[in-house]
Specification:
Helix content: 25-40%
CATH topology of the largest domain: pyruvate-formate lyase- activating enzyme
Number of strands: 21
Shape: globular
CATH class of the largest domain: Alpha Beta
Strand order of the largest sheet: 2-1-3-4-5-6
Number of domains: 3
CATH superfamily of the largest domain: tm_1862 like domain
Bound molecules: 5'-deoxyadenosine, iron/sulfur cluster
């Protein structure tokens, strides 16, 4: 199984990332690593002789995508007028970690399997596969992959930066503690160095990433113990950086210092992604969430006291085993009590090896469908309301890309809303706009000011 014969080493690679923002970050790091190894990136998978599928295992549908993608790649290579060698296929990310050697058994076209803590070994794995050796690496070494990665170089105006990885919370539905490993915090200086490199390369906004980003802990250069708020303060002092965000946070790690940072740190954006998952205390207990509906609401109140305009976002699961209609209504109730600027909601998906997968009283698909629809109707309404409430506000927008129509740019408001602006301004410029209209998914802003720096 795997690669049996030696083959030409690949020259052009294509990385396709699925799932969360950390995978986007990992995908960018893998690209930089392969480039440093002498390969060149291509956006067109048909041109690539190495395809890296950077996969997600969080829900069934996400995990299955990888196999249909592999099938498509093989078919495409065979369908060419001049049949060519099938590109080398590497499966990376959380499916690689969870399924390991099972992947080439099920899909023999796969040459490399590499987990999220091992991708610094990718150049060696590519060389092994080219030499006809099976290349599987799902180790979770104690030393960090980050030390072996090249310095950041290319960057648009917004960048992700992983500061914390893994999870010790063991929510009963979730594979993350198994695929990403135990909670670890990257060291203070490594993070600040990377942030500096990102800013030097053009980043104006940095989003600090971690599965439990607010559990970040470390020591600053003076040897003092610091939390995520300390890191945010240090970034606030970094010239050239205009905005700081972080995601995803766990309610139990929402320290008073971090809450205060939302009041005190100018560059920290008024946005908080703080998943509650469900509103019924019985279900929250079965999920092993270690907070209840009341403590979550109290926390939101504290955050809003520190930063009244903060935008709240969350994740929700419907149809967790044993969820009754009454439990589900408690979810709707907590959603109403919080008021969201945006949110993600999912049907419960049993994941092999997690405690919830074998719990009694799994919920039928039709019931989940119906509940998800009701929840999403409510969440969409809240998002639209939040957007409508922005009309008349004046705010900064960091321009990220061109809009659909000529002369339009699209950027983000401080509250992470997409804002369309008619402006002859550069991508990466911060402009000031008046919000003049709002739809469910975006706002229209009228240009009222441009940065002096850009003139
Ligand atoms: N089924 C459905 N949703 C899940 N999530 C995590 N595991 C599952 C699962 N087994 C959701 C949670 C989490 C988000 C990233 O994905 O809401 O916060
Ligand atoms: Fe999964 Fe819970 Fe950890 Fe989030 S906190 S990654 S949902 S186990």
């Amino acid at each position: 199984m795997g690669a049996a014969m030696s083959r030409t080493p690949p020259k052009r690679f294509h990385v396709k990332s699925f799932g969360c923002q950390m995978n986007v970050y990992d995908g960018a790091r893998m690209s930089e690593l392969l480039e440093a190894d002498g390969m060149s990136a291509t956006d067109n998978p048909d041109e690539a002789d190495l395809i890296v599928l950077n996969t997600c295992h969080i829900r069934e549908k996400a995990a299955e995508k990888v196999y249909s993608d592999i099938g498509r790649i093989v078919k495409r290579a065979g369908a060419d007028e001049q049949p060519r060698e099938k590109p080398m296929i590497a499966v990376a990310g959380c499916v690689a970690q969870a399924e390991g050697g099972e992947i080439p058994r099920r899909a023999p076209a796969v040459d490399i399997v590499v987990g999220p803590q091992a991708y610094h070994n990718l150049p060696q794995l590519v060389a092994d596969a080219a030499a006809g050796r099976r290349a599987i690496d799902t180790d979770m070494p104690a030393n960090s992959k980050f030390d072996a990665l090249p310095r950041r170089r290319r960057q648009g105006p917004t960048a992700f930066l992983t500061v914390q990885e893994g999870c010790d919370k063991f929510c009963t539905y979730c594979v993350v503690p198994y695929t990403r490993g135990a909670e670890i915090s990257r060291p203070w200086s490594a993070i600040l160095d990377e942030a500096k490199a990102l800013v030097d390369a053009g980043a104006r906004e940095i989003t600090l990433l971690g599965q439990n980003v607010n559990a970040w802990a470390g020591e600053d250069e003076a040897g003092r113990s610091r939390g995520l708020d300390g890191l945010i303060e240090a970034l606030d002092a970094m010239p050239g950086l205009a905005r700081i965000r972080y995601t995803t946070s766990h309610p139990n790690d929402m320290s008073d210092g971090l809450i205060a940072a939302h009041r005190d740190v100018p560059k920290l954006m008024p946005f908080l992604h703080l998943p509650v998952q469900a509103g019924s205390d019985r279900i929250l207990r079965a999920m092993n969430r270690s907070h209840d509906a009341r403590s979550y609401l109290a926390l939101i109140e504290k955050v809003r006291a520190a930063r009244p305009d903060i935008a709240i976002s969350g994740d929700f699961i419907v149809g967790f085993p044993g969820e009754t209609e009454q439990d589900f209504e408690a979810t709707l109730e907590i959603v109403r009590a919080v008021g969201h600027a945006q949110a993600f909601s999912f049907k419960y998906s049993p994941r092999a090896g997690t405690p919830a997968a074998t719990m009694a009283d799994q919920i039928p698909a039709e019931v989940m469908d119906e509940r998800l629809q009701r929840l999403q109707t409510l969440l969409n309404e809240q998002q639209h309301q939040f957007n409508l409430a922005s009309i008349g506000k004046r705010c900064d927008v960091l321009l990220e890309r061109d809009g659909k129509k000529p002369g339009q740019r699209i950027g983000k408001s401080p509250w992470l809303q997409s804002v369309i602006v008619e402006a002859d301004a550069a991508i990466g410029e911060m402009v000031t706009v008046d919000i003049v209209s709002a739809g469910p998914n975006s706002l229209m802003g009228e240009l009222v000011g441009r940065e002096r720096a850009a003139a």
